[in-house]
Amino acid sequence: MSIDDISIKVTDLHSIGSIDALLNEIATRLQRFITQGETSMIDLKSLPFAPAEYEGLRTALGRGEASARLETIGDSELYETHYPGVWWVTHYNVEGDVIADLIEIAAVPAILHSQPEDVRDGLERLQQQLSQKE
Amino acid sequence: MSTSLQRGIDTLIGQIDAPTASFFTSCVHCGLCADACLFYTETNDPKYTPIHKLEPMRRLWQQEYTFWGKLMKKVGLSKPVTDAELAEWEPLVYDSCTLCGRCSLVCPVGNDIVYMVRKMREGMVASGHAPEGLKDSTQRAIELGSPMGLNLNTLKAQIKHAEKDTGLTVPLDVEGADYMMVLSSAEIADYPEIIGAVSRIFKQANVSWTLASDGFEGTNSGIQIGSSDLAAEILGRIVHAAERLKVKYVISPECGHAFTALRWEGPNLIGRPFPFQVIHIIELLDELRSSGRLKTEGVDETRMTFHDPCQMVRRGGVIEQPRNLLHMVAPNFVEMPDAGVQNWCCGGGGGVSANHRAEPVRIKVFSRKKAQLDAVNVQTIVTSCSNCRTMLLDGLENNHMDIEVIGLTELVAEHLADNAEGKAS
Amino acid sequence: MTEHETLEQRLHEQGISRRSFLKFCAAMATMMALPPGSASAIAATLAKVKRPSVIWLSFQECTGCTESLTRSHSPTLESMIFDMVSLDYHHTLQAASGFAAEQAREDAMKEFHGQYLLLVDGSIPLKDGGIYSTIAGRTNLNMLLEAAQGAAAIVAVGSCAAFGGLPNAQPNPTGAVAVSDIIKDKPIINISGCPPIPAVITGVLAHYLTFGALPALDDQGRPKAFYGETIHDRCYRRPFYDQGKFAKTFDDEGARNGWCLYELGCKGPTTHNACATTKWNGGTSFPIESGHGCIGCSEPKFWDAGSFYAPLPAPTADVSSVAQAAAVVGAAAAVIVGAIDRGKKTAAQQSRKKLTVDDLKGN
Amino acid sequence: MEQELLLWVRGTGLQIASAVFLIGMVYRMLHILLLGRKHSLAQPRGSEWSGALRTLWKRTFVSTKLSARGNFTVITGFIFHIGFFVTFLFLSQHIDLIRAVLGLHWPAMPRGVIDMAAVLAIGAMVALLVHRFVDPVKRLLSDYQDYLTWALSFLPLLTGFMLLREIGFEYITLLTLHIASVELLLLVAPFTKLAHMFSTFISRWYNGAVNGFKGINI
Q1: Is residue D17 part of a domain?
Q2: CA gyration radius for chain A?
């Protein structure tokens, strides 16, 4: 017997209805972003999703033009959905487990911005390198 | 020893039985019985709600036969039944209840309320709270032999009249006859035609019958006032006469409470089964009809209706028989609304007619009968209870309604086939 | 003894970038069920906190809580969290043993008196002088009382420490009680569960570090952020409950369709925990997602609440036998009182004088 | 504390309530029957049993023509009783309980039907209470017991409905309240007119038996 022999059916997603609710929420936030420039995040792990719904949400939001990848402690995957301004941000740990899964409404996800502290550190390193060459 | 509160309470304690306990346990105070009682529907006074008429008895049941009631009584938290309360309840128990039993039909939990009112009256009379009119008529029934004060001489005079009218001999004290006829006081006093009518019918049908000189009065005031002891004494005369004459049947007259007293309460009152059977005159006539022994000729084209006496129909089960007889002679017979087991009382049953104090309310609630009659527009009302007949006449007069009231037995007798003697085929 | 410098210094020394730290804080926000936008605020605070000393005492327990914390969490995150604290005593995890271990505990207690965080897992037996569980020859009760004295706050990890747990279940042979039954004068935070969700343990630590105070607690002393809602409230199968669609057995059509497990004994409606959203095993799933009802392990007395497979409406005690006995008692009472009342009735009937017409006149 | 309370009402509380209910009800009903009645010496015209059984069933429906207030009572009363029994007997959670105690079970009704039945029953009870205040007949007949038993019957319905919808309080609180309210009802029922839940059938039996004996088809 393999895992495929266990008959698991995909539940009718409309009978649960959380996807529609979430899409409505995203639309509302997107509207606020346009009019007031307000960025925001939705923590997907805090929402009670059925396994199939999660995939349903991925399909509903689709994939857009931009994507990025961070190599921090563990990877992070960022991509803009089919709806510009709606980003799907997933943080992994070094073992590849998801540690945070977010929908971010913004022009660019905040985590993508270079951090002033890191920039300062980088400058320091660059100057150090230059001074060594001298 | 005379009547007293304690005597009444002791009587009631003895009266409460399994059905009574069950009924009081079940009542949810829904008030539907009010809708079934003409004293409520015609006055809209909530005190006439049937179950309310039993309130003192209910409390007594609670205090004597229930766990909490006994406990409350022990710690002195219950409200005892007082003389003043019973006095207050007297008009409710006697003046505004005809024991018609309509309330017992409507109760959704199935309470037989009139069964309990009958018991309540046992306690009321033992405690001295019975209406003067009923006391007087009961006293006359015991002392003179008839609530209306009639005696054997009166009967003999009426027999003489009947014999003269019909040319038949009215049998008196014939030992070994099959049937012993009993009459009601009202029949002897006001509707003596009945004697001639039954004589002719029995002659045609070849029924062996007799009257008894020591047991001719069927009206039982003891039942109405609610005393089994007195009822048994009154009834005892009929039983004694029937046993003396060795009859097979005793015929109940056209009188509702006489029928109940004889047919259903009788053996229980005297404490042993009867050695004879009891049959209502209308039941007997219908039996004669169905066996072909009663034949009529000609019909009465008058538009008529039939008033069902409560004790005959709802409490007695004589429902189809009067209709069978009417259909023989009355082609224009129509039913009143609510006819049959749901019929409304004339307003004077259960001793109300003998209770002068009750007269104003009795006359008021006749409006229910009037409404029933207005709905059918008849010239004649037929009935089979002489008390109903008197009440109907009284009510019609008070309401200036021009409708004739006749007894069913007389109506049948008027249309007997071969009126002339000896023509029997 | 470890030096207690700030987290920022330590991270910087390890060459961890600010962006990595921000990402960590985003994960922390998620874990603590805080708004995801609060990551930068958390970062700002966390960077400046000093690592507090932590003493972890294990009493009458199964080590499941420690296992839960160390096994199922991502190593990186765990190490970061343990970077935030100085775990000075944990007799399962520490390298030292015997007298050296006890010495470390005593040193920490002395040095950080009034400042250290005391974590406790396991219940404390009180019966027979508490002899049923001892460490280094000392009863748990004795050790707890001593360690609690200098603690800034106590974290009761797991249902045993929080509510008494399994040792406390009927008939409780060791007289086991919860930390809060003994310690009344210190702030206690209960992280119940058997075991508790590891992210909840670290989340509470992070909260304590970030905000320097205990998080808001419910009336059971549990952090509201994780225990504020029931499993039922956050369960993805909840719509089936509302529609009245229930699996009747573990292998019927309803079970395959993923219907509500209420009738199979799920205690989700009366259980407060974050399983339905935080999930287990690195966010893989939680019991209901695997097809098994919630057993209510984060609630007091859950071992005594009847079978795990009996539905919530089912009685937790034998009602049938009581009912049968009651019916017999009722019948017996009715026969006895009935006989008395019948006697009263008969007496009333027999003593009654016959009513005569003279009685009517006499009144 | 809440868990302990819930555990208590699901365990000891339920045992106490069931015991009191059964002792009280069995005592009360048997006591009624043991009070006995005189058997009539009159000659029967029909059978007591056939009359009794007929009335047992037929009295469920009032055949007498009623006034507007009477009809209101009958219809509202019907809605309440039907709603009460539908929610009591056909909600899956209740069937779970009955199965756990008696081992009997039957299919549940859809939640939509249960919700409607509960709303109708609650509405009917409120209407009946208002009617008890305004109708002169009912007002005269009513005593403290009428209001007490109303409240005790109303609470399980209300808390049950709130529990299904999780209105007002948490599930655990509502479940505890709901079970407790039912237990209160069980405790009080045998000693109040709520005993009519069983005695009605005795009453109908006796009433019908009298008519059956007399051969009256009512």
Answers
A1: yes
A2: 20
